[in-house]
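Rather than argue in generalities, we have chosen a single entry, letters for residues, whole numbers for local backbone shapes, without further comment.
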Amino acid sequence: MSPASRYTYLGPEGTFTEAALRTLPEAATRELVPMVSVPAALDAVRNGDAGGALVPIENSVEGGITATLDQLAFGEPLMIYREVLLPIAFALLVRPGTALADVKTVTGHPAAQVQVRNWMAEHLPEALWESAASNADGARLVQEGRFDGAFAGEFAAPTYGLEPLATEIHDAANATTRFVLVGKPARLAAPTGADKTSAVFWLRDDHPGALLDLLQEFAIRGVNLMRIESRPTGEGLGKYCFSVDAEGHLTDRRLGETLMGLRRRCLKVRFLGSYPRADEIAPSVARGTTDIEFTEAADWLNRALDGRA
């Protein structure tokens, strides 16, 4: 297959990322290539070795996935084209014949640890945890005998010759991880009516109310922020950029004008894409912020300039 027909993902085989990727209809016609890390998956797209990469960006327990947020903010520009929401429940995978009393060392991705901490305190209070590059990589390490158990998806057990000793493990009910399909920047697809827009912005200077001033760009135009997280820029203590998700599509007048307002007032704004919401929930648009009302206001201004208002 050509590189354009290749999708990379956070590997190895058997990760939740792979499970999320396989929910996409186009995955059946793509070559799916596991990568050792989020940066490696995204760099394959940047280098032209893959047409897209699916990576985790947020989970409902711990929040943003910093490796992905930073890669999208600071690396060569990429664009988000769609998102996938995957319910997450872990299984404790062990080598055949292992009993719970035999499990003295466990592993998994760092994001898994915060989602199974209470379960471990109850069932494996003496077990030692050491993080792995991914949950599936933890399963591989158990296969190799380096750990007694790994917290991973139950579906990973056959791949690594393991057995699920316990299933449906999650401290938080309805735990969900959000993944994004990322590619090189291109012209936006048409809005669906239930869309999300992602961006990163940098403050021009630090002063009292600086962030509030910028958030008001969203508020006065009726744009709902779904997520906002600060990330250090690496330029010194106190230097941050802000990663946001907002309801709507860039072609919506309220959202387009919001980003123009940020662009005027910020040191830098990076647009990360407008794409369909996985939950298909349409935004509730406040009175005075619909495209029609923006158009009518612009028409009124033009009439005023002509002396016809």
User: Anything to note?
Assistant: Residues 218 and 258 are 6 Å apart (CA to CA). The mean pLDDT is 94. The radius of gyration is 23 Å. The helical segments are 16-21, 38-46, 66-74, 110-123, 135-143, 210-219, 253-265, 291-305.
